[in-house]
Amino acid sequence: MKIGIVVHSQTGNTCKVAQKLQEKLSASGNEVEIQRVRMVGGDKPQGKDIKIENPPDVGKYDALIFGAPVHAFSLAPAMKVYMEQIASLQDKKVACFVTKALRFNWTGGTRATGQMKRICQDKGAVLSGTGIVVWNKQCNEKISELVEEFSGLFDL
Question: For residue 70, how many C-alpha atoms fall within 13 Å in the half-sphere facing its CB?
Fold first, then answer.
């Protein structure tokens, strides 16, 4: 299966999760590619007029994983803008995850994954799973759990 992992990462934490997913899914025989969502002018939002630099093309993948940080209790603006620009995810298997610093899911994690889920379903995706990684002293354990869960979603 050809899987695209499309991430927006401001601090590198979301990319770290994406790399672990890529390692596990590749070891299972999948062809896995990570693509970054980058804003014109840098990775920190500079107002409401966000433009995406070279938006990743999702059409070439059989399945997708979207990953982004939580920003102000919601999905990071760059990922929201990018996902809303995708023309179609019709019948593609999709999973989504977010990374965040505050430990409770209600501090943005649930809302952000819900936003991702709605965008994907509105574009025809088959949503397979969502996950939240809180960046604290147990984050490596949470990353491992997410990687195991998601790798089971994309078995050949």
Answer: 26
- Predicted TM-score (pTM) of the model is 0.94
The pLDDT tens digits for 24-75 are 999 999 999 999 999 887 666 556 678 899 999 999 999 999 999 999 899 9
Bin 84: left if φ > 0, else alpha if -120 < ψ < 50, else beta. alpha
Distances (CA, A) of 121 to 15, 17, 88: 24, 23, 10
Displacement of CA 147 from its chain's centroid (Å): 13
CA nearest neighbour of 143 among 22, 3, 8: 22
* 153/42 Cα distance (integer angstroms): 33
Spell out a b/e string for 57-73, using b for 16 or more CB atoms within 10 Å of the CB, else e. ebeebebbbbbbbbbee
Q: Which residues contact 152 (CB under 8 A, 6 or more apart)?
A: none
Q: What's the confidence (pLDDT) of residue 36?
A: 96
Residues, the chain? 156
Instruction: Retrieve residue 30's tokens.
Output: 């999948």
Both tokens of residue 145? 């759990």
